[in-house]
Amino acid sequence: MPKYHSGGRNKAKRVKIHLDKCRRKNKRSNNNSAEVLSDISVLESRPSTSAASNKSSLSDDNEQDGLSFISDSFCSSIVQSTAMTMQQQTSISKFVTTATSNQKDELDLQVARFFFSANIPFNVVENLEFTKLLKKLRPGYEPPNRKQISSELLVKINEGVINLMKNDLADDSAVTLIQDGWSTFSNDPIIAHSIHSKNKPYLISAIDTGSQSKTAEYCAQAAKDAIKIAKETFNKDVFAVCTDNENKMSKMRKHLQAEAPKLITFGCSAHFLNLVEKDVSPKSIVKHIIAIHKYFRNHHQPHGWLLEKGGLMPQLPNDTRWNSQLDCLQTYISNHSLYVDIRGEHMESIDPSIGSLIDNLSIQREAINLYAQLKIVGVALDKLQADDTTLSEAVEIWQSLIHNEKLALYKDDILKRFKKAIVPCHFLANLTDPKYEGRTLDRSQEKEAEEWLNEVYPEFMPGYYAFKLKDANCFPTYLFNDSVKSTTSATNWWRIIERI
Question: Greatest CA span in the chain, whole angstroms?
């Protein structure tokens, strides 16, 4: 018996060592865990180690493997330990952040929107620091390259914008087309078209004209192409076209009207009013201010002295930048005391001709008086270029300048621009605006509007006179109350009439 028990204990120890090795190996390879479990299943199938139940069945084979001496509880503990070891193993995917296909698509589109909205060169997306930034913000995300941004992503964003525009324009049957031209940073000539509705513009085309000369005929054809886009893409009819006021643009508008007599065309009042600022600015005064400004802009040392004193950057007038005449005077008046200080501190370094202009206090007085006058025009210009300004309101703004006593010396200049900017449809809009009803118009202007309406839209003449007479059968009296007229836009007022 002692020999029997001693042998069993030794063999049990060997099995324990074997299982310990298996567990360690299991940590290195998941495949080996199946072998360990196989050995354990053998142990569990062995009979109990109870002496009473095994005395009569002992054999040389039993003694050789010694497995019958391992208890059920020991086997069970091994099974549980191995199972727990397998459960504790963690997949490496839990330590890696990845973007799903849908998430990547959304991120790509947002990156593209950023580039398009900020007008950033597409190759910046491949900049090392930019890609590192994106990966820090979203580990596992691989940003698009410049080819993707300039092709498939651009197409998707464009389609999305067009769909949004369609939704915004859904309730409008007709729109105004605006044509304008400019140059890019690389001096490429562009002709752009936008449609205006609900006080909001929507860009619908931008044409790189390349070497093509922007003649009146070319611009007219570009406008007709844009009108076609408005109809085919957005299902909107263009009833009016607005352009700037170059001579070729006036000729272009005549081309359009010849082909479509009912099409309303007019020049931009804001452009004309910007020219008024130039008209009312005496060259004898402005030229001296420009000379001083250029000196402090273009000479490094005087420019540095001005910056050290906290001066403003001197602004120069520009025909294409609105209110630039006003900005020129404003920066001169603000900087004048600094110019005087710099002149006194660096008398030997300042150009004598510029120094004499700075010393001339009459220039300062004239600048202050001129600024007060131009400020009136500048405020009017800001109103004209607002997105929600109507043709009716444009007439009122012009009339306020014509009859302003402070601008009496420049009345002829203002009238000259007014006659070019305002056309019969402006007068008609003012006459049919319940807020104004043409009260500031003279009889000749009223007659001009009526003759135009009778020639182009004769079917509206009865309604026009019914409005003018405030016919209660067509227009409820309460809609002419001051409280209604003062708080309701002309557009909304007429929409109410349509529903009555």
Answer: 138
Question: Starting at the edge strand that comes first in sequence, how are the strands of the sheet with 174-183 ordered?
Answer: 200-208, 189-197, 174-183, 237-243, 264-267
Task: Say what the pLDDT of residue 109 is.
Answer: 96
For 190-220, b where at least 16 C-beta lie within 10 A, e where not — what string? ebbbbbebeeeebebbebeeeeeebebebbb
pLDDT in tens, 396-436: 999 999 999 999 999 999 999 999 999 999 999 999 999 99
Report yes or no: 398 and 275 within 8 Å, Cβ to Cβ: no
C-alpha distance across the termini of the chain, in Å: 116
The encoded tokens of residue 275 equal 């020219």
CA dist., res. 203 & res. 230, Å (int): 10
Question: pLDDT tens digits, residue range 434-446?
Answer: 999 999 999 999 9
Give the global pTM.
Answer: 0.73
Q: Which of 117, 186, 200, 113 lies closest to 153, judged by CA?
A: 113
The model's pLDDT over 231-286, given as tens digits with 9 standing for 90+, comes to 999 999 999 999 988 888 989 999 999 999 999 999 999 999 988 988 888 888 99
The answer to whether the CB of 195 falls within 8 A of the CB of 178 is yes
Looking at residue 460, the DSSP 8-state letter turns out to be G
3-class SS of residue 245: coil
Q: How many whole angstroms separate alpha carbon 343 and alpha carbon 334?
A: 16
What residues pair up with 194 in beta bridges, in sequence order? Answer: 178, 203
* Amino acid sitting at position 428: L
H or E stretch at 271: helix 269-279
pLDDT at 158: 94
pLDDT digits (tens, 9 = 90+) for 463-472: 999 999 999 9
Beta strands in 327-480 (DSSP E): none
Can you give the pLDDT at residue 403? 95
Q: Which amino acid is at 349?
A: S
In 342-460, which ranges are E strands?
A: none
Of 289 and 212, more confident: 289
